[in-house]
Amino acid sequence: MPTTTMRTLLPEEGLTLDLHLPSGRLPAPGDHPDRAALRRDHDAWFRARTAQVGLDAERRLFEECEGVSLMCRVLPTADTQRLLGICLASSVLFLLDDVTDGDSTETSHADRYLAVLGGASADGGSAHLRLLGETLARVREGVSPRLWARFVSGFSEVITTAAAKSRSAVPDYAGYFAVRRADSAFDLVGIAIEHGLGLELDLDPVHLGAFLDACVEHAILVNDLLSYRKEYVADEPMNALSVLCRTEGRDLQDAVDALCRRLAAAEDAFFAESTALIGAHGRRHPALRPYLDAWALMLSGNLAWSLACPRYHGRDGGWERDVLPGRMVLHPDRTVFHATSR
Questions:
Q1: Helix, strand or coil, per DSSP, at residue 209
Q2: Contact 306, 298 (CB under 8 A)
Q3: pLDDT at residue 9 greater than cutoff 70
Q4: What's the whole-number average pLDDT of the chain?
């Protein structure tokens, strides 16, 4: 089913979809005790640097502000100054996700973004590029060389994928997921967790890779499911539900059911791979447990954030209750959730 067809399924009274979200195993979402101060410092940083970036950037950074609200849930025990840098990095990533997506002017300058990420000057570039350069200088403060090298590598993959992904439609779910993982920046969360908690882990790459696969799949599927209204209204094709409908001939509710099953499987894999990591490393890595606990908070925090996010659901939508919703209703301008399915 092409995206343009799905966009016609949003009557004013709403399109109702049943949800079957896994629940009961992940910890309750956290929140950092200094969230208000972090938000104030985050906003002050960007307000001093967004005069030439435009009103849309201001809306993203100051009204929706994904960076602070997400990362405070992920790292509720992190050092405040380290977390501020992580929040700034998250927000600028969200902002650049819009301006470097598709066939935009910024996308055509991916080589300049990569150069600035590698340490080149942003002088003479666009306002967005200069904002990236200034923010990266602040984000790098206190980050170890090893973690910074990993950050640059992961961020480079995001930029490179954004520049290439609109050239052809993905042929199937597996192809979609490979592209989505490369451009989602969720692989950078592990770096943020290590930096935020002051860790430098050296884990078995086989076990760690399987663990991160489960984490990233869970996070991406949550975001795709709960951002679906926003993305098809904006005619954005890179969403798992759109791909399942288009490539497998599913109707929308069937695609939602399939995605919820994949999400439950990813959660099962998270716990299984956590156990495997502990078994592989045991007491040799006393910092492993805080790292795993932080990832568990990432998954529950990302779910809570995705349910409440005004960017996805509009000013009058979203869900901020403890119990998970069993139904979502997609309206042209908002997503409304209900506790029980039909």
A1: helix
A2: no
A3: no
A4: 85
Helix-strand-coil split of the chain, %, nearest 5: 65, 5, 30
Asked whether residue 170 carries a pLDDT value surpassing 90, the answer given is no
The per-residue DSSP string of 303-319 comes to: HHHHHH-HHHH-TT-B-
- DSSP for 76-142 reads TTS-HHHHHHHHHHHHHHHHHHHHTSTT-TTGGGHHHHHHHHTT---TTS-HHHHHHHHHHHHHTTT
Q: Do 150 and 191 meet the contact criterion of CB atoms below 8 Å apart?
A: yes
Neighbouring C-beta atoms of residue 231, cutoff 10 Å: 19
Q: Which of 179, 254, 191, 186 is nearest to 220 (CA)?
A: 186
| Token pair in block for residue 241 | 């539900």
> Structure tokens of 200?
């430098």
Mind listing the pLDDT tens digit for each residue in 39-67?
A: 999 988 888 887 766 656 666 666 666 78
Grouping H, G, I as helix, E, B as strand and the rest as coil, residue 18 is: strand
| Distances from the Cα of 166 to the Cα of 11, 58, 236, angstroms | 28, 26, 10
Three-state DSSP state, 328: strand
Q: Which residues contact 89 (CB under 8 A, 6 or more apart)?
A: 67, 135, 136, 139, 151, 188, 192
Other C-beta atoms lying within 10 Å of the C-beta of residue 329: 17
> Helix (H, G, I), strand (E, B), or coil: what is residue 15?
strand
Helix (H, G, I), strand (E, B) or coil at 338: strand
Record the tokens describing residue 235, joined without a space: 């005619």
Structural element, H or E, at residue 259: helix 252-281
Q: Where are the alpha helices (DSSP H) in 122-239?
A: 127-139, 145-164, 173-184, 187-196, 205-226, 228-233
pTM: predicted TM-score of the whole model, two decimal places: 0.87
Q: How many residues does the chain have?
A: 342
